[in-house]
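Q: For a teaching session next week I want to show students how multiple molecules come together into a single three-dimensional assembly. I've collected the sequence lines for a complex. Could you give me the predicted structure tokens for the whole thing so I can convert them for display?
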Amino acid sequence: MAASLAIVNGQVWSRPGLSAVAVDGERITFVGAGSLQADRVIDAAGASILPAFNDAHVHFLMGSRSLSELDLHGVATQAEIERRIIEYARGHAGQWLVGRGWFYSAFPGGMPTFGLLDRLVADRPAYIESFDAHTGWANSRALAIAGIPGAGVLKEGALLDVTRHIPARTKAEDLDALRAGMRLAASRGIGSVQEAGDGQNQLELWTALRDAGELTLRVRLAYDLTPGLDLDAYNGLPRQGDAWVATGILKAFADGVVESHTAAMLEPYAGSNERGDPIWGPDQLRDAVRDADARGWQVQVHAIGDAAIGQALDAFEGTTRGRRHRVEHIETPHPTDVARFARLGVVASMQPQHSDPKLTEVWRRHLGPARATRGWPWRELGRSGAHVAFGTDWPVVRLDPWASLQAARDISRDDAIRAWTEGSAYAEHSETNKGDVREGMLADIAVVDLETGEVKATVVGGRLVYEG
Ligand SMILES: [Zn+2]
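A: Of course. Below is the structure for the complete assembly, covering every listed component.
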């Protein structure tokens, strides 16, 4: 039997007694036991042989760009944020200072103040996004360029008013960013990512990497679905793509986030009369989804508040079941909506790291105790028969499947791995090729020590793309 690559002396995940895998070209040709001959043999040394992780919801280009920007992710106090901004500004010249990642909870009151960034960065425009990319913090130079008087904190769509003035990266810079992002993904055992939006703007970058034979990661790109958009706008773009750069899905936002009171809730936020406005009018989302569904598109809808989740599910009522439409995030569903996912055949796409107690202090305060206990019910959704897909939402949280598996501790590790592999493959209509270590499947494999989380090797399309 000819084999280009073999992995031996491991434990094939969910296949007790099997320890070895052979690959020829880009597919798995044998799963069994014993020693194998191949051009390249990898000794798993007892580690688990998993399907490569498939991140069902990520902002990969944004994350890749952020690898070279100011990073405030995880910084716990305002004093430390101030220190890092000053230090970064000293060490980095540039027309603008751009960064991301701050936590709402680092600031007393849950939001940075206007004058603060002026004091820290006075010599140039500065713009720093919150960790969830739903709130922007700008100094007055940046706001003056954008023609916005007053407030220093911008929410949701208003971010664009500033970000469109930030000098654009060149294509070469973006390709370099994606290369760095791909190296990081390979080191974490990730073989596929599903880019949640902006796909129409990224096709050129990803196809350039594909055509140059540089991809070490498969990507599925979602084109944006926004209120008022005529879907004819996408007539000239690929409708399916291929196994490396796939398409076929549209991404819509039904609401924002709890932290800035922009998630659409059925009842007001705790201590407030705001409940967050849905982004789409009462029938508008349903009409857009029906139009997309009739044209053969799969649709994924960002919905965090209970009102937005209900609106998304209402929009999916009566659509084509085989499309596998999806709701993204599902942070605070109304209890009666949980069972609708399985009934409608709607995929639950969730990101366990969002539930990390370090990230949810402001979230819990804004919801109040009763609603805060209903957060992130992947266990209930799974039990009800819904298809659950896991991802990170990088750069909102770290690009780290292992951290995600730890965060989903109320389900078994096998169930969490299944959501990260088979579940995300189902969510992108690729379960016949990905999500299992089985003869005939694409050779997308991660060798992981499930005691420590250490990734020992990552194989994508039969190619060894990372070795630890
Ligand atoms: Zn996202």
